[in-house]
Design brief:
Layout (H helix, E strand, L loop, with lengths): L3 H4 L36 H14 L3 H28 L2 H11 L3 H19 L2 E3 L2 H8 L3 E5 L10 E7 L5 H11 L6 H12 L8 E6 L3 E6 L2 E6 L11 H7 L4 E7 L2 E9 L6 H10 L4 E5 L4 H11 L3 E2 L4 H13 L4 E5 L5 H6 L2 E4 L6 H6 L2 E3 L6 H35 L5 H8 L1 H11 L40
Parallel strand pairs: 2-9, 2-11, 9-10, 11-12, 12-13
Antiparallel strand pairs: 1-13, 3-8, 4-5, 5-6, 6-7, 7-8
Helix pairs in contact: 3-4, 3-5, 3-15, 4-15, 4-16, 5-15, 5-17, 6-15, 7-8, 15-17
The chain binds adenosine-5'-diphosphate and magnesium ion.
The site of adenosine-5'-diphosphate has 23 residues, from helix 8, strand 5, strand 6 and strand 7.
Amino acid sequence: MDQAAITGESMPVEAGPGTRVYAASFARLGSLRVQVTGVGAESTFGRVIALVEQAETHRAPVQRIADRFSAWYLPVVLAVAALTFGLSGNVLATAAVLVVACSCSFAMATPVAVLASVGAAAQQGVLIKGGRYLETLAKADVLLIDKTGTVTLGRPQITDVIPLDGRSEVDLLTLAASAERYSEHPLAEAVRTAAAAHGLALGEPAGFQALPGLGVRATVDGTTVAVGGLSLVPDAEAHPQVRALAGLGKTLLAVTVDDRLAGVLAASDTLRPEIPAALAELKKLGLTRIELLTGDHQGTAATLAAELGIPFRADLLPQDKIAIVGEYQAAGHTVVMVGDGVNDAPALAQADVGIAMGAAGSDIAIEAAHIALMREDWTLVPQSVRIARRTARAIRINIGFTAGYNAVGLSAAAFGILPMMLAAAAQSLPDLGILANSARLLRHPTPGRYPAADTEPGKAADENRPAAARQPGPPVARL
Ligand code: ADP
Ligand code: MG
């Protein structure tokens, strides 16, 4: 499948049974039979259209400056014309003043540049919901990043199944997977995948409840089962086996049955390979304060943060993430937040610029964010900043050029040096200048050089590939 229209990734992606394919993609070879799961506005393509429409209604602050400028520009022009006529009585010079000033280039200065950039960005797989986010992104200095699914591939594998109440490993995994049956969380999928790998038959959970940042709770076969972080059970870390696993940087999940600890599952996830280079580049681009925010526990977060060489805060609930964003904002910083999950959505909305990782990520995160990356590729983050910087510069050039040009034109006309015909011709010149300057934005900025991160075609689609096709990370636990 060629999904370039959606993801910007020109390499075709392998599709097989169970793969999710986007509307607006092309079958390059062979044929396939697809089941429609969403039509129109529900499709990714439909969401892209909605985002673009939304972008049009969110104006850039610079655009408002241009609007305000236009409001007093007209009276000034009329005054200059009146003055010219009053002092010289020259009708032609007065008309020349009105003609040369009749330029729509102020109104064009921002939207044309924003349009060019939003379009160029979309081609590369970066959906920007409005010109104002380009403006803000250009001056951002703090970058907050979520861990699971954002810094890591978000495809954890269950590596250990440790019953602590005498039941069998198979029983523990079956219970956990049944409770997780309807959760969208990457850890839930890991638990289900592990259960499926051992051919376990899952029970049907009743009263399923998802607690963002904590875990899930459901009734399975008459017992209440909860799966979630170690904070679910205060004394979980008292077990030596649990402590040993925590030291390895694994994510630990406590499984409780009727509120008593039944066992622990350990999951391990893989760091996205292109992250270190992308973070280094973002630092160079002025995002000097970078911090990892996670709902995972201290031990896991510390291991990962050390690997990336950035500070971290762990054991966070969604509301804690919002509070941290607010903290930085109150201190006068412009905050960019990158996240993917349901638990990140509030913080993404609160941030000055929220970036949702991967169109395959959670719909809520994409909805809440201001920029959506259509490919799960960190190189798109510095790329977005670069696009924003370029746009801000082009807009300043557009406005400066127009202001200068009109000042000269008006003066020349007022003093009668500019003949009528020339004034008419000169009038459209700044528009051409703005178009030419903004058209430069259609060219893609040179992306940073990264080591061949993940040469698999179409990473965004990984999630959609049949389970058998993805085998990164550690082997699934043996029971
Ligand atoms: P992050 O902030 O790193 O993206 P989340 O906030 O999504 O992580 O999750 C934080 C923690 O909450 C996880 O490490 C896990 O312990 C627990 N958790 C959340 N949802 C689930 C779930 N569906 N199943 C098991 N554990 C979960
Ligand atoms: Mg996450």
